[in-house]
Amino acid sequence: MISKVKNAMSTLVGGMMPHGHHHHHNHHSGGGQTCGPDSLPPRFPYGRPDFLDLTPELLQYSTEHASRPVLTLKRDSRLHWRTGYAEVINAGKSMLNEDQASCEKLFVKKPSGKHRNSTLQEDNGVSEGRRPEHQNRRIPLHFWGVFDGHAGSGAAIMASKLLHRLIRDRLGEICHLLENPNSAPPICLAKNGSPYQADTKKGASQEPEDPDAVSDSTVRFHMEKAVSLEGLVIGVIETAFSQMDDLIEKEKASYAISGGCCALAAIHMMGKLYVANAGDSRAIIIRNNEVIPMTNEFTPESERQRLQYLGFLRPELLGNEFTHIEFPRRIQHSELGKKMLYRDHTMTGWAYKTIVEDDLKFPLIYGEGKKARVMATIGVTRGLGDHDLKVYNSNIYIKPFLSCVPEVKVYNLDENKHGPDDVLVMGTDGLWDVTTDREVADAVTAYLSCCDPSDPMRYTLAAQDLLMRSRGVLKERGWRLPNERLGSGDDITVFVVPLAGLELET
Amino acid sequence: MISKVKNAMSTLVGGMMPHGHHHHHNHHSGGGQTCGPDSLPPRFPYGRPDFLDLTPELLQYSTEHASRPVLTLKRDSRLHWRTGYAEVINAGKSMLNEDQASCEKLFVKKPSGKHRNSTLQEDNGVSEGRRPEHQNRRIPLHFWGVFDGHAGSGAAIMASKLLHRLIRDRLGEICHLLENPNSAPPICLAKNGSPYQADTKKGASQEPEDPDAVSDSTVRFHMEKAVSLEGLVIGVIETAFSQMDDLIEKEKASYAISGGCCALAAIHMMGKLYVANAGDSRAIIIRNNEVIPMTNEFTPESERQRLQYLGFLRPELLGNEFTHIEFPRRIQHSELGKKMLYRDHTMTGWAYKTIVEDDLKFPLIYGEGKKARVMATIGVTRGLGDHDLKVYNSNIYIKPFLSCVPEVKVYNLDENKHGPDDVLVMGTDGLWDVTTDREVADAVTAYLSCCDPSDPMRYTLAAQDLLMRSRGVLKERGWRLPNERLGSGDDITVFVVPLAGLELET
């Protein structure tokens, strides 16, 4: 059994090496990505994050489901802020590790004419030199992302390569506003990007006197909502996720980009940490061994009402196969006319309804906990990709029910003091399925307190420790934790980011 | 000015007395309820809650906008649990007090054939005598409701008369399940109401072996969600609110039932307090001077994304007059082609978009705080009634954007110890607009600690004290609080319910 998987792996890994990604033979598997009928090339070849700097031999070694080797940062390859990282492949549920990660330091700058569409361009940090110095101001940005792929690794790989650049470029478009952190962003911009104030004098004189009108000439409208710079950055992140999703869809015309992925990103800029989550990965801040949750999970259960509402308003999306009403279990034909508990999109409690023919359809949301699914197909409700995903053996698309927009939470780094053991932990669900927030916090705090504070590897070692706690060790009865409970058989990816990292770096 | 209001009042009050409600003259104003063109009679005459026991003279006196007399429970009329109550009319924004309240002790019992549709029937507590004793078990239920009407008082009055009965009757239908509080309610019921177990043996033998299938014969389905009795009661309350809303719509064919109302209800049954809120009223529990919020407010701002999502999915509901996209202010025609901040139903942050013709439409959600409106019309997004409500001078209905389903929170009374100063405070927005949760808690705690614990009036006096703090006193510059800030000019209704009330009663 083990060797069979391994043999398949060898063939695959042979075909997924970076040097092989320009060959488009029909037998070329596309690195675990299902090729379409027209055998498109993969958008990016399969691989592990660049910062791991794996040799082809190590890359192949990383895919061994039998031993599940833990990959960590090498001692001589540093990530910014001394970020710690560890990952491990699943126990056999997919050929390749469908998790991906990225950790990047970038600079936000005004787009020059030449680089208007610079998403695919490397951030080499070289100043352009042609413009006066003050037009080249650059705002540093730190990015960490974990991407948990499903049904192929294509979307996760693409997102890990491009999402941070999309965010950087969108921030670049408002760079001139970010440079004045103390003034609120203008509501309206002229085409050249400068603030635009509509002339309201004429209009105002025609209107009857309004007691609410403010006489201050800087407020020219009866009602103008204040928007903060923070709200603008959140908007950039939200729209960049949408843009990433659109890009995957668009490039699927030319490339094989398989599956979809949950996306969790942390962005540090101007003293604030923005944590954006679309899916079931999780991030927590551990400060003085206290847990501050930075994400909510988006699953069929947590987003039940949103999904039911869509199914209710747009029943055609259910393809006559599904009902938006939830029942505690499947209904049998013999139960027609009986009364059964249900809840619709407006309810959190349960009530009885008389069962009619329509209720015999399969429920839009079905199952509990990790087994909950949308239309019996997918267990997460936010993420990137999945544009082709259909209900098995049908023409019903899942995508309309999925959201690519993250929830963004903000943590003010500058307003809090951090010791060297205060960290942000980001992990895919493989980590959290078997280890609670509290257990993670206790483990990290205990581990770091025993570690030399000046050891640059300490955060990677802490990440490795966390990962081992969730993977467990291989025993006769599978992967087991010290308490004999089942370890996670999923891909696991962990970042441990010291919150005092910016200072540690200098 | 004052006497003009007063004269109008006298005429009105003359027409709104209970003894006048069978007269259907054309000049009969319907008790502040706008009569339709066909001059339908009001469903219920205007009045104040029965438990205030007002004489016609006092009822007229209660409507004096100039003096805004505070009405409280009389010393000799007791509400169950020694519940305290106070109310005051607005400062002139509507002729009559559009708030309503109810406080009822009822009994949940199995519906007999005779009384299947007993909603309009008084709960006289007389046992039916025809059935064996064990079939007449009755579960006591305590109900408190505040209803904040708008655009007329018809819906608020009707809800205050009937909502508790609908809840009682729906609970009656599941009375045999409530009698066994320790067993989970059955998923499926036969027509006679007894648990129904489908035969799954045949189906199971035809299916391939499923490793997840449970062999325990009591769990006969692969997946069956556990539903608690509490979930069932929540479902009853949610569906009873919907039923109340449907009833208002249905009876509008025969009666004048003006306006709509926010509805906040507290229901005590079997040791638990269920607080159900649809609108912008608020309830808090004060325990040891700690505040436990029991409601969230539902306003255009708090429900922005739900409303925008509906406008996005069903643009025809916006009648070509409104856009579901939110902008920080109105856009002028001269700004076409410029870029403006916006957010759509998926976003919480803001981004810039190029303004197109469609963006010049009025925004679905517009305004901030108390001035936020749905389609420039209504400032609350949940409640009962409003079936006829349209955007001014248009044929665009607001109702599709409003939800009649409350959010229900549960507080376990039995699991907590309560002193005589621990209370539930329920109030319409008139109370909370000028007084914070913290201020209310401090005021109640301070007031009650100075009151004789055995005085049956202490909770009514505390309610009156709270109300005075929000109304203020009439000065030259209007209703003012001690700190000179403006008092609430709105109708105000307050219940102060002692959480140890059940013991106080005996």
TrEMBL record, chains A, B:
Q: Where is the composition biased (Basic residues)?
A: 19-28
GO cellular component term of the entry, any: mitochondrion
SUPFAM superfamilies for the chain: PP2C-like (SSF81606)
Task: Enumerate the InterPro entries for this protein.
Answer: PP2C, PPM-type-like_dom_sf, PPM-type_phosphatase-like_dom
Q: Where is the PPM-type phosphatase domain?
A: 82-499
Q: Which Gene3D superfamilies does the record cross-reference, listed alphabetically?
A: PPM-type phosphatase domain
Protein name, UniProt field: Protein phosphatase, Mg2+/Mn2+ dependent, 1J
- What organism does the UniProt record list as the source? Sparus aurata
- Organism ancestry: Eukaryota, Metazoa, Chordata, Craniata, Vertebrata
